[in-house]
Write a structure and sequence with these properties.
- Chain A: Keywords: Amino-acid biosynthesis, Branched-chain amino acid biosynthesis, Transferase.
- Chain A: It comes from Deinococcus multiflagellatus.
- Chain A: It catalyses: 2 pyruvate + H(+) = (2S)-2-acetolactate + CO2.
- The complex is a heterodimer of chains A (202) and B (561).
- Chain A has helices at 22-32, 61-73, 105-114, 135-145, 188-195; strands at residues 9-17, 37-44, 50-58, 77-82, 88-99, 118-122, 126-133, 150-155, 159-162.
- Chain A is of the alpha+beta class and 202 residues long.
- In chain A, strands 5, 6, 7, 8 and 9 form a 5-stranded antiparallel sheet that branches. A 4-stranded antiparallel sheet of chain A has the order 2-3-1-4.
- Chain A is elongated.
- Chain B is of the alpha/beta class.
- In chain B, strand 5, helix 7 and strand 6 (153-159) form a beta-alpha-beta unit.
- Chain B is globular.
- The N and C termini of chain B lie far apart (71 Å).
- The A-B interface holds A 20-21, 24-25, 28, 32, 62, 65-66, 69-70, 72-76, 184-185, 187-188, 191-192, 195, 198, 201-202 and B 116-117, 120-121, 124-125, 128, 137, 141, 144-145, 149-150, 178-179, 181, 183-184, 187, 296-298, 300-302, 309-311.
- The structure holds thiamine diphosphate.
Chain lengths: 202, 561
């Protein structure tokens, strides 16, 4: 037996038409094919009718490419961005509740300050911090606090945008000015456009 | 105009001439509006599963959209098997379901089922219409999605109040099918290079190539590459051509499976390397560089490692690959293949294979041949000699028993001038036998049903014989089968029976000569296997070529004694 290698994480942004059951369709696709979603966050975008999901999946490159190609076939999916292919910024918001006592209070506050974390709730025996950052920062923060006794944490899941001035949502996704509807999945030409977002696509 | 009329107007505008369906409370406005649209024919089947398979049969024969329709709840859920079947076989299908009124949806109202939720994983896409103004646009979009790219089933669920609501908008015209992306020239160049250097090349074509038969035939002849057609691709390459090697996989031919196991280059077009085709994946085409052409990028590299991926339409890719072809001297390879081909056995003595061969030998090139699922299906696939695509109508991906008769009806209605023959087992026939009523109701004259009656769920019995030490668990039908001739008679369908090799030719003549749709029951020995066979989980090279000797296998008769 070889020691188990941790499977790498992949950060995907999926732009979807904001319609009923979209979330179910996407998560069902991951579920049925046995791909494990590690984190999922969804929100609206600057374009009415388009939502943006950030999904972290673990699996080797092949698994993730297969997942993306399956996603690409869904009528609801407008565009998929694999962030490993470009530079990106990513963030996660975490709430951490840490046990304190008179001896540790100052030290805990000092750690929080070093991480530019804000206190959002103060109790007699616990402090709750809000911390925003990329994965490394959040992990480091939690590890610093762990010895004091972490009572609860809640994470939003990661969100990401590509760096630079490129907009992730291509202009043609949307009828400018017209009704609030998307172009019917963007007819032939934009469908190819979407295909090009899937890496290694021949 | 109400929503229901807008639905029919949209369907009529899209050239839909025939819809298979079954009414009910939640779709009554649609059936009411139907009376105003005589240009669309509605065919009442006797079960919604029959409607779905008939629509599939229509689509598989013609390549055009099949349409089926059902009411909410139980009607809609009865479509599910057909939708799953269409999904796995990439059949363009539109399913329209009625549903309870919008305000009742989600309340567990009478005959409510969350059909869009249920069919989520077995449709290409599905919709609930929430605003009558959107109805025609959604139906038009559903039709486009079902037909474009890799085809598949799309379901549109219409609540009853939307069917009744007033509609004042435009009825959309059909949109042109979007063109397939052009295959990458670099990938094509690499593919050509591989073919040029190949000493033992083989081509394998699947259901995604049905509309590329001419191009594929030209490609194979230009490079002098032998061709294997999968269960779904039968007919894409003419069986009479010496380059044809037969079908691959679990019940594939010796030549096809050996060729795959020996090949140095395997060119796959429009196929998805199903496990019934590959056998154990690690043992599949172990020496071959694989070129895979498919419209659906998700299929490429999904099962087998691919050396040259080509995303695109099979016809276009085949045409481009044929350019600059140079048939190379491959005498050794050809000699080897011919030797393997010579091992094809023709069923010599009386049994299911003998009967199936006698029937398929009578087919004309234009005849449609549908099958149900089981041994008779594999025998038909092995023994029929298709010269053209879209003549073989079968449930490949899902393996749906009960598919045969309704599919043959749908295909036969699409091509009323063509004989629509169906081969079924005594088990599967009884799953949709009530569709004999559909034959009677519409006086359909071109459907010829052949039941191969071995008194068993034969295919399961074969597995029990081989892999469960002949413990024949729940597969014996002999004591409870109906008298199939009388059953047909009850529906006014003329019927014939043959129980011996001597009786068979005369019975086939009478059956085919009858100007009406007719049924032929062939009573065959109970125990008879389909070979060659690659056991599940084995590699293609581990094929059992011929039926093992059978020293006194226990039969139900013997155990009765
Ligand atoms: C709906 C459905 N149920 C069960 C099966 C499993 N199954 C596959 S072949 C078969 C036996 C079919 O028997 P029969 O129709 O008599 O045909 P034969 O194999 O004897 O030719 C069964 C039960 C199936 N494919 N479809």
């Amino acid at each position: 037996m070889t020691p188990e290698q941790p499977t790498p994480d992949h950060l995907l942004s999926i732009l979807v038409r904001d319609e009923p059951r979209v979330l179910t369709r996407i998560t069902a696709l991951f579920g049925r094919r046995g791909y494990n979603i590690k984190s999922l966050s969804v929100g609206t975008t600057e374009h009415p009718g388009v939502s943006r999901m950030t999904i972290v999946v673990s699996g080797d490159r092949g698994v993730v490419e297969q997942a993306m190609r399956q996603l690409e076939k869904l009528h609801d999916v407008v565009k998929i961005i694999d962030h490993s292919l470009e530079k990106y910024v990513d963030r996660e918001l975490v709430l951490v509740k840490v046990a304190i006592n008179p001896e540790t209070r100052v030290e805990v506050r000092q750690i929080a300050e070093d991480f530019r974390s804000r206190i959002v709730d103060v109790g007699r025996h616990a402090l709750t911090f809000e911390v925003t950052g990329d994965e490394g920062k959040i992990t480091a923060f939690i590890e610093q606090l762990r010895p004091f006794g972490i009572l609860e944490t809640m994470r939003t899941g990661r969100i990401a945008l590509t760096r630079g001035s490129n907009a992730d949502i291509p202009a043609h996704v949307y009828h400018p000015g017209e009704t609030q509807t998307l172009q019917p999945v963007l007819s032939a030409e934009p469908r190819e456009e979407r295909a090009r977002e899937v890496p290694n696509l021949f | 105009m109400n929503g229901a009329k807008a639905l029919w107007a949209t369907l009529a505008n899209h050239g839909i001439s025939t819809v298979f369906g079954y009414p009910g409370g939640a779709i009554m406005p649609v059936y009411d509006a139907l009376t105003f649209y005589p240009e669309v024919r509605h065919v009442l089947t006797r079960h919604e599963q029959g409607a779905a398979h008939a629509a599939e049969g229509w689509a598989k024969a013609t390549g055009e959209l099949g349409v089926c329709m059902a009411t909410s709840g139980p009607g809609a859920t009865n479509l599910v098997t057909g939708l799953a079947d269409a999904m796995l076989d990439s059949v363009p299908l539109l399913a329209i379901t009625g549903n309870v009124a919008s305000h009742l949806m989600g309340t567990d109202a009478f005959q409510e089922a969350d059909i869009t939720g249920i069919t989520l994983p077995i449709t290409k896409h599905n919709y609930v219409v929430r605003d009558v103004a959107e109805l025609p646009r959604i139906v038009a979009e559903a039709i486009r999605i079902a037909r474009s790219g890799r085809p598949g089933p799309v379901l549109v669920d219409i609540p009853k109040d939307i069917q009744l609501a007033a509609f004042a908008g435009q009825i959309p015209a059909p949109q042109a099918r979007p063109e397939a992306p052009a295959p990458n020239p670099e990938a094509l160049a690499r593919a050509r290079e591989l073919l040029r250097g190949a000493k033992k090349p083989v081509m394998m074509v699947g259901g995604g190539s049905l509309d590329a038969a001419a191009e594929i035939t030209a490609l194979a002849r230009a490079w002098d590459i032998p061709v294997i057609t999968t269960l779904m691709g039968l007919g894409t390459f003419p069986a009479s051509d010496p380059l044809w090697l037969g079908m691959p996989g679990m019940h594939g031919s010796v030549a096809a499976n050996r060729a795959i196991s020996e090949a140095d280059v395997l060119l796959g077009l429009g196929l998805r390397f199903d496990d019934r085709v590959t056998g154990r994946v690690s043992g599949f085409a172990p020496h071959a560089a694989i070129i895979h052409v498919d419209l659906d990028a998700a299929e490429i590299g999904k099962i087998v490692r691919t050396h040259v991926p080509v995303r695109g339409d099979a016809a276009q890719a085949a045409r481009l690959l044929a350019e600059g072809a140079q048939p190379l001297p491959r005498a050794e390879w050809r000699a080897q293949l011919d030797a393997w081909k010579a091992r094809t056995e023709t069923p010599g003595h009386w049994g299911a294979g003998y009967a199936v061969k006698a029937v398929v030998d009578r087919l004309r090139p234009d005849d449609l041949l549908s099958s149900d699922v089981g041994q008779h299906q594999m025998l038909a696939a092995q023994l029929a000699r298709f010269e053209k695509p879209r003549r073989w109508i079968n449930s490949g991906g899902l393996g749906t028993m009960g598919f045969g008769l309704p599919a043959a009806i749908g295909a036969g209605m699409a091509e009323p001038g063509v004989r629509s023959v169906v081969i079924a087992g005594d088990g599967g026939f009884q799953m949709t036998a009530q569709e004999l009523a559909t034959l009677k109701m519409y006086d359909i004259r071109n459907v010829k049903i052949c039941i191969i009656n071995n008194s068993y769920l034969g295919m399961v019995r074969q597995w029990q014989e081989l892999f469960h030490e002949k413990r024949y668990s729940e597969v014996w039908l002999g004591d409870s089968n109906p008298d199939f001739v009388k059953l047909a008679d009850a529906y006014d369908v003329p019927a014939y029976r043959a129980s011996t090799a001597e009786e068979l030719p005369g019975a086939i003549d009478a059956w085919l000569a009858n100007p009406k749709s007719a049924l032929l029951e062939v009573v065959v020995p109970h125990e008879h296997g389909v070979f060659p066979m690659v056991p599940a989980g084995a590699a293609l090279s581990e094929m059992i070529e011929t039926e093992p000797a059978r020293p006194g296998a226990p039969t139900p008769e013997a155990s009765e004694a």
